[in-house]
Amino acid sequence: MNLTFTETAISCIDALRGNLPGKLYLYYLTEGCGCENSGIFTLKLATEATTEDIEFSSNLGPILIARWTAVFLEEQLKIDYNAKSNALILKSDSQFYNRNLLLMDANNNYIYTPKNEQ
Question: What are the residue boundaries of the Core domain, all occurrences included (predicted)?
Fold first, then answer.
């Protein structure tokens, strides 16, 4: 699997994360969704990997993902930033996985994007 971050997505993530520690993790959030097959991908900063986690490549270096969640994704992925909606977007050439990809710190706190100044 390979993930490409656009330049605008990289700028957004860098601004949001600041100096927070952790490696980027493509995290499958199932809390409040009912079951493991019903969830949503988000980005998380992970300070430790578990035995369940694997790495895959990206233009920002290795990204963590839980092995069992990788089956939900296509081989080539992209994370982009849409300035109009002020949101990160996880997509492939054939579908959108999340049009409002949030970023969580290592303690599962959400880090929100700054307001759009238009």
Answer: 1-103
